[in-house]
Amino acid sequence: MTMAISVDGLVKTYGRLRAVDGISFSVAPGEFVGLVGPNGAGKSTTIKILTGQLSATEGEVRVHDVDVVADPAGARSAIGYVPEFPTLYEYLSAREMITFVTEIRGGGDLEWALEVAGLGTHADRLIREYSQGMRRKTALACALVAKPPVLVLDEALNGLDPSSTARVIRVLDALRKEGTAVLLSTHVLDTLEKVADRIVLLKEGRVDADVPIADLGQIRDRLL
Amino acid sequence: MPNPYLSVHRRIRRNRRSWPKGLAVVLATVLAVPLVGPTLLWFMPAEGVASDKALASGLSAVGFRLAALVASAVLLKSYTDLVRGPDRAVLDVHPVQPGPLVAAIACRTTRETLYLPIAAMVLLLPVGLSGHWVAWAAGALLVLSGWSGALGVGFAVHLAAVWAAYSESLARFLDMVRGDNPRMQAALIYGPGVGLAVIGSAIGLASLGLEGALLGWMPGWAMLLLPPLVGVVVGSQVRRLAEAHYVRASLVLAEISAEWGGREEAEEAMRVYLEGLAVGRPELLRALRHGWRGLRSFGTGAWVLGLIAGAMAWSSGPQDRLVWVGAAAVLLVTAVAARMGENDPAWLDDALGVGPARVAMARAAVALLYAQGVVLPVAGVLLLQQGLAAWLLVLGLEALAVLGAAIGAISALQWRGRAVWAYGPAGLLVWAGFVRVLG
């Protein structure tokens, strides 16, 4: 079976610092994987390489069978990505922003995405007037609107109110059941416990554990 | 199919509902012309009519400088828009079509720099008003040529710089010229310089053509079109380069940032220029940190400009040129106070627990301190050469630095993100007034 995400022997060095030191893991289509680890473990670097934002020093990364290192632009078509600090056009409304994303991604379900974002009447206000939570919801809607086969979410649920978090989790779960691969980097283990199939724990740039969610209890201590 | 990037830029412009930013600069230029005209257009006699020879050579020299200045600004602006512009951060998470996107960015850069050749044409207006309208048209054409040529060259050069950043064949050369910078950064830094060398040569030939044309040599008129011709030839590669390198520029930026992050010792990264002056003044410490970490080119660039102005002071050239350049350099550096307002959030000002006046004074103090990089070398050379006879000019430059810093800080306080657009026209008028009084 072709993996939605395949990371093999990934290394990233900054001078003498090895931020990522030989990481390997994969995510199958329809699988929800949580990427966890303490600050500085290499989560964000891994995600940046995975989404074509940063080049790898060594190793192979494939997304939807596209080599991200060789073709970062091609890999982006398959990925819906919410970075930790999303940037949006300040002088567009959420509706305009998401409409624009459907245009550049070649289609998408605008009304569904707006419903996921849950912005209600605020969807027609300029993004520059939004709170951090509303910006994050807009970024999530942009990542989801074209229903790409792979979702990569970097701390994407931070700052959302509980009802929005629950709604987004429901949507992600439904997408997973339709075959979307989801990789969620987070510090909130409770969220993963509800929805993830597997947990990949990173520590000091290496995979410290790659276990089914049922074994979360075994690695909780190592994480803390 | 319509270009979605053009549509979204149009939508943003409509939602922003702001005045064209350059309009204030053009209006300020109109007001500055009577003040700066006699110094800038030195070949125009106060009374009577300039000889054809004096007019042709003078206008050629001034036209060359103005066109080169406009081209430099366009090259820097195209770098900012293409490599570090607002679109990159938004679109990095989505698939993009580089060709149409770069075309949309180029349209925006064209629109947002159009005020530059217009302002330059306004500066040349006294030539036309004295009855030499053909000469004015030739000067205007030279400036427009430089501007349009720089657009084509700029976009191609900045995209080619991304290729150069990865090029194995250029690695040794980049290592030789990069200084302390990462190799990839050197490729980007020297891009505008390479662009200016290309378009500057074309502008130089065009200005010779202008002189010839005004003296009756007809091919000179054709030479005026050299810069746009170069722009079209070099710019024809933009689409191909965009497809290959626009997206990779994000990787280059990330690599540069990562390399800096990896090599800086924590202590070194925390060190700030002149920090010792801010003991017990949190707002000044914040402004010094902001200046050094976010706007360092103003602090280091001031000393470069100061050395250039100092060299001019050392030479036996006319003092009005020194006034012209020294004043411009001082006001360029004190713009740092206006730039500080762009990124400082209002809540941070509040969190400092001091009033807005003290925040503004701190920004002004940083601008004034940075401006010493220009004033001190000039003052040193002038005092060595002329002794105390030069005190008026030295004091004048210092007063100008105070005024520029104050205008910058007040602009930042009032308009924050748009402070530069208030500072620019005001600074232009102050510069023109200074040149009028001391030039």
Describe this structure in words.
The complex is a heterodimer of chains A (224) and B (439). Chain A has 224 residues and is of the alpha/beta class. Chain A has a single domain, classed as 3-Layer(aba) Sandwich (Rossmann fold), CATH 3.40.50. Chain A has helices spanning 43-50, 72-78, 94-104, 110-117, 132-144, 162-177, 189-195, 216-223, and strands spanning 5-14, 17-27, 32-36, 58-63, 66-67, 79-82, 150-154, 181-185, 198-203, 206-212. The radius of gyration of chain A is 17 Å and the shape is globular. The mean pLDDT of chain A is 90. Chain B folds into two domains: 4-263, no CATH class; 280-438, no CATH class. Chain B is built from 22 helices and no strands. Chain B has helices at 4-16, 22-40, 52-83, 86-91, 98-113, 115-123, 125-129, 133-166, 171-177, 183-189, 191-214, 219-223, 226-235, 238-263, 266-270, 282-294, 296-314, 319-343, 346-351, 356-386, 391-415, 419-438. In chain B, helix 8 runs parallel beside helix 13, helix 11 packs antiparallel against helix 13 and helix 20 (356-386) packs antiparallel against helix 21 (391-415). The radius of gyration of chain B is 23 Å and the shape is globular. The relative contact order of chain B is 0.10. The model of chain B has no long low-confidence stretch (mean pLDDT 87). Classes of the chains: A alpha/beta (224), B mainly alpha (439).
- Structural category of chain B is mainly alpha
Instruction: Compute the CA-based radius of gyration of chain B.
Output: 23 Å
Order of helices and strands of chain B: HHHHHHHHHHHHHHHHHHHHHH
- Secondary structure tally: strands of chain B: 0
